[in-house]
């Protein structure tokens, strides 16, 4: 989700940590699937004010072989925008094969990685989400999507917890989403198949 | 006009050919033959003109007469004269057959082959050469007769040619074998007769001889594990070493043919061409040959595709030697010949079939535009190859999301190709459409607007199962995350009757896609459930029937997701599903398939079944307690309890969810 650029944060350091953790790939998780929708909030509070935006997320596709997923994110009560702001994001599944815990890009140092991952329970699938572009507003809308999210997914109830990371924004902006079942009284599933 | 020029007009020359009254004799005949031969060499227009004038049968009759005269006891001068006439006649016949199908037909119809064959045993080496060269031209054509080597006389004839010291004759033998060898039995007969050994010994000859032998070796080995193994063992690997050396020959055509031979060995008897080193070398040689002009450059991409087919490691090797850059740079040249273009696109399609890195390399607008342009090519094979290329590029979710392939014109073109008179093109276009419609509302909308849905529905009723299968998959993918308006539109075009008949299709894979389409229809859309229950529940009945038949795991999984999605709906929807799963008032309290599904080794089938019960026991629903009681009576709760330690975490979590819901309902009742 786009945030306003804010002065802050610790300078990045490179400790040169390179080793993989050897963590086994996450188990298959039916709630982490294409078509699944989530809803909740992102805390975008700064030193100046408390603020939270309502957020809706939809996973549009998952490619487990390549540890890739993608989807859209919709922020609902963005003060600078007349309408909800929708972005397209791409995700990396930390599976120890395609992607490791160490981000190695987006100005995130290994220390940043450790600081963020350690806030999550150890057994959940972990992901990084990076918004790639605005779907329905221009880049001059006064918002930025320079950062990315450290995300933890709960297989048991499909809830998502995350932290937005951007060295130029307030640290540890929390993302909390609940899985939307889909049906009026239960969980629905849909799928596609690539040929 | 000078007399000699007037006499060299095709009509005049043709009139002087032949035997008997009116035809030229002796030196005049020889001159006429020589003049015709000189005029037609390399000149297709002249060849066609002389064909039209009926020159071929006349020249063949001259050849026949001269050959007969030459073989009888006659004086030295006459025989010498006959030899000269034979040489010119044979050369002219060979030239007519070179690269002109009508010419080959005329030559064959005139009965040239037996006469040319008869002069192969002539005393005069020049006559033998002329006969052999002429026959080689004929045997380059598909129209040439095939020699069945299972007939002893044919085999003996070929072996006699192969034993000759004359290179033209041995090359002829190689041509005949390459042209005629079709069946495993023929391959074995040739191998038993020692033909492959002889070819290996001839690999040290001239370039033409090498090439002829290589083509024949490939024909004898192709798809024959026994013959290929025997060849590979020849001389303790001497044969394979000879081929390996020839992939570095100075002539590109020889390098290509040597690669093809090794590829043929590798496919027929993989253990002999197993080492990555030799395969990597083959990749490198073929990638270099891509840039050769003419036939070599045309054929190299086909050989590359065959070599790397389904082999991810070789895809990586090809990527590392810049295969994609080379293929793309050739693609960007102006006026690429159709055969080469087809080969390039097929090679690119193969490279994109597995590796994300390869797909991403093709995502430049320039390259994509060229591939899209190829969709409009006159040649059907090029259109098919372009569709296959697009299908494989769009196996990448990342590429699909990038929106590069969203232009209206492009999707419209694919839909047009689904109407193509050629079934191969239709199938290929559908393949590309199946992937293109995923994940992008814009592309879905374009497809719907340009009449794509009605065409997909039409093709879903085709007698051809490949067309049915791909069109149903495309409809399924179109339905995924479609909005309610589009879902209703698709269903209206498809009709419940057609959907039901697809669920009952004779092919399991089509049943599965139709069920998945139904599941996607109902997903997140309680309004759509009414369609599944409409017309006396024709769709739900079909789903249940197929679940009971359980023709494949995939069918069962998708069927359970349909039920699960319906069970996420209203109270009445849940009861409907419940009544199908656990029919009331039945004597047997154990439903046949649900317990079996929960006990399945297939994780996804267990998961799909469990979600159905999650939805049926939703504590927020009024009738859930009632349903739990029925599940208890049916033994399903007991089955669920036995799954508390399911090896799959996802299943374990759902089982716990269901049992917690049951307990919550029990507590609420108490």
TrEMBL record, chain A:
Pfam families linked: Vac_ImportDeg
InterPro entries in alphabetical order: GID4/10-like
Superkingdom of source: Eukaryota
Region named Disordered: 1-28
Polar residues bias (residue ranges): 7-18
Family: Belongs to the GID4/VID24 family.
Protein name: Glucose-induced degradation protein 4 homolog
Organism: Musa acuminata subsp. malaccensis (Wild banana)
UniProtKB/TrEMBL annotation, chain B:
Keywords for the protein's UniProt record, in alphabetical order: Cytoplasm, Nucleus, Repeat
SUPFAM superfamilies per UniProt: ARM repeat (SSF48371)
Chief location of this protein within or outside the cell: cytoplasm
Keyword Aminoacyl-tRNA synthetase among record annotations: no
Gene Ontology terms: cellular component: cytoplasm; GID complex; nucleus
Subcellular compartments: Cytoplasm; Nucleus
Keyword Secreted carried by entry: no
Gene3D superfamilies for this protein: Leucine-rich Repeat Variant
GO terms of biological process kind: proteasome-mediated ubiquitin-dependent protein catabolic process
Name assigned to this protein: (wild Malaysian banana) hypothetical protein
């Amino acid at each position: 989700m786009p945030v306003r650029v804010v002065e802050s944060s610790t300078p990045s350091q490179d400790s040169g940590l390179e080793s993989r953790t050897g963590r086994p790939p996450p188990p298959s998780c039916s709630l982490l699937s294409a078509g699944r929708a989530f809803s909740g909030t992102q805390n975008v509070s700064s030193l100046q004010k408390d603020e939270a935006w309502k957020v809706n997320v939809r996973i549009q596709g998952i490619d487990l072989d390549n540890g890739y997923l993608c989807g859209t994110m919709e922020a609902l009560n963005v003060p600078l925008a007349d309408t909800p702001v929708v972005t397209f994001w791409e995700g990396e599944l930390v599976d120890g094969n395609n992607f490791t815990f160490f981000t190695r890009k987006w100005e995130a140092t290994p220390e940043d990685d450790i600081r963020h991952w350690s806030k999550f329970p150890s057994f959940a699938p972990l992901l990084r989400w990076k918004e790639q572009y605005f779907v329905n507003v221009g880049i001059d809308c006064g918002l930025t999507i320079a950062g990315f999210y450290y995300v933890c997914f709960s297989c048991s109830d499909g809830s998502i917890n995350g932290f937005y990371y951007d060295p130029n924004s307030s640290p540890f902006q929390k993302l909390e989403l609940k899985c939307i079942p889909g049906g009026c009284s239960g969980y629905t599933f849909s799928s596609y198949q690539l040929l | 006009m000078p007399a000699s020029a007037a006499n060299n007009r095709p009509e005049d020359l043709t009139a002087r050919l032949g035997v008997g009254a009116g035809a030229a004799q002796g030196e005049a005949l020889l001159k006429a033959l020589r003049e015709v031969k000189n005029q037609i060499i390399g000149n297709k227009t002249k060849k066609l003109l002389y064909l039209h004038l009926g020159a071929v049968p006349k020249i063949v009759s001259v050849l026949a007469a001269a050959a007969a005269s030459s073989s009888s006891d006659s004086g030295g001068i006459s025989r010498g004269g006959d030899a000269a006439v034979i040489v010119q006649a044979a050369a002219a016949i060979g030239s007519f057959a070179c690269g002109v199908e009508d010419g080959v037909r005329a030559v064959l119809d005139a009965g040239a082959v037996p006469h040319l064959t008869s002069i192969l045993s002539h005393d005069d080496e020049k006559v033998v050469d002329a006969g052999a060269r002429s026959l080689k031209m004929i045997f380059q054509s598909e129209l040439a007769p095939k020699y069945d080597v299972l007939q002893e006389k044919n085999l003996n004839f070929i072996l006699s040619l192969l034993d000759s010291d004359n290179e033209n004759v041995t090359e002829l033998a190689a041509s005949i074998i390459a042209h005629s060898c079709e069946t495993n039995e023929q391959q074995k007969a040739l191998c038993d007769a020692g033909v492959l050994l002889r070819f290996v010994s001839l690999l040290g000859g001239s370039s033409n001889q090498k090439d002829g032998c290589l083509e024949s070796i490939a024909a004898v080995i192709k798809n024959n594990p026994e013959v290929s193994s025997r060849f590979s063992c020849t001389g303790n690997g001497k044969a394979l070493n000879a081929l390996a050396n020839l992939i570095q020959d100075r002539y590109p055509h020889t390098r290509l043919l040597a690669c093809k031979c090794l590829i043929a060995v590798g496919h027929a008897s993989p253990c002999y061409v197993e080492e990555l080193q030799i395969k990597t070398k083959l990749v490198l040689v073929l990638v270099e040959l891509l840039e050769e002009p003419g036939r070599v450059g045309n054929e190299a991409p086909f050989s590359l595709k065959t070599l790397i087919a389904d082999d991810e490691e070789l895809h990586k090797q090809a990527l590392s030697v810049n295969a994609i850059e080379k293929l793309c740079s050739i693609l960007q040249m102006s006026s690429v010949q159709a055969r080469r273009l087809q080969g390039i696109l097929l090679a690119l399609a193969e490279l994109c079939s597995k590796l994300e890195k390869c797909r991403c390399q093709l995502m430049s607008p320039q390259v994509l535009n060229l591939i899209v342009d190829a969709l409009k090519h006159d040649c059907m094979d090029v259109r098919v190859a372009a569709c296959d290329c697009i299908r494989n590029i769009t196996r990448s979710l990342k590429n699909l999301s990038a929106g590069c392939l969203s232009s209206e014109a492009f999707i419209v073109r694919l839909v047009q190709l689904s109407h193509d008179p050629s079934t191969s093109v239709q199938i290929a276009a559908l393949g590309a459409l199946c992937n293109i419609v995923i994940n992008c509302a814009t592309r879905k909308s374009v497809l719907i607007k340009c009449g794509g849905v009605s065409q997909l529905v039409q093709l879903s009723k085709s007698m051809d199962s490949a067309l049915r299968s791909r069109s149903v998959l495309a409809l399924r993918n179109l339905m995924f995350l479609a909005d309610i308006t589009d879902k209703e539109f698709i269903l209206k075009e498809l009709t419940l009757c057609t959907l039901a008949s697809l669920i009952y299709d004779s092919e399991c894979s089509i049943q599965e896609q139709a069920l998945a389409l139904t599941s996607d229809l109902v997903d997140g859309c309680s309004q759509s459930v009414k369609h599944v229950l409409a017309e006396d529940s024709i769709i739900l009945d079909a789903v249940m029937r197929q679940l009971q038949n359980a023709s494949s795991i995939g069918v069962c999984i998708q069927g359970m997701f349909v039920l699960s999605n319906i069970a996420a709906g209203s109270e009445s929807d849940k009861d409907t599903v419940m009544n199908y799963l656990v029919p009331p008032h039945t004597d047997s309290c154990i439903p046949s398939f649900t317990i079996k599904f929960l006990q399945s080794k297939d994780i996804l089938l267990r998961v799909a079944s469990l979600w159905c019960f999650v939805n049926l026991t939703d504590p927020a629903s009024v009738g859930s307690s009632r349903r739990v009681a029925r599940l208890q009576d049916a033994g399903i709760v007991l089955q669920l309890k036995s799954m508390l330690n399911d090896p799959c975490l996802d299943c374990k979590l759902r089982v716990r969810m269901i049992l917690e819901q049951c307990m919550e309902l029990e507590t609420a009742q108490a």
